[in-house]
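Key result, reporting period 2: structure in, sequence out.
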């Protein structure tokens, strides 16, 4: 029991270190990444970080109508969704935890 268990324990520690490095690398990339989404032919634009934090909101004064607040809200929501979709597209090829070698050795 000793040798096999010790080997698995060592592999688990190595995998944990790799996961930590991957997480730090991805976190750093997401913090510096930005994507912009627009709606209403540019009336509203929102820039988000890779982690989803809203960095900037721009609203063209021409689309501000006191009688149509719901319309402005819909444009903001659509611009945010567009920006989020761009972030997802930009990060789709980033390595994930499942890409780490050794998961199958640990039964994961």
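The corresponding designed sequence is given below.
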């Amino acid at each position: 029991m000793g040798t096999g268990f010790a080997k698995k324990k060592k592999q688990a520690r190595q995998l944990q270190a790799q996961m930590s490095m991957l997480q730090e690398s991805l976190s750093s990339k997401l913090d510096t990444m930005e994507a912009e989404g627009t709606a209403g032919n540019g009336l509203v634009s929102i820039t988000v970080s890779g982690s989803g934090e809203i960095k900037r909101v721009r609203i063209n004064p021409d689309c501000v109508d006191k009688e149509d607040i719901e319309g402005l809200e819909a444009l903001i929501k659509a611009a945010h969704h567009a920006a989020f979709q761009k972030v997802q597209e930009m990060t789709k090829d980033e390595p994930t935890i499942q890409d780490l070698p050794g998961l199958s050795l640990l039964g994961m």
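The mean pLDDT is 83. The longest strand covers residues 34-39. This case is discussed further under Risks and Mitigation.
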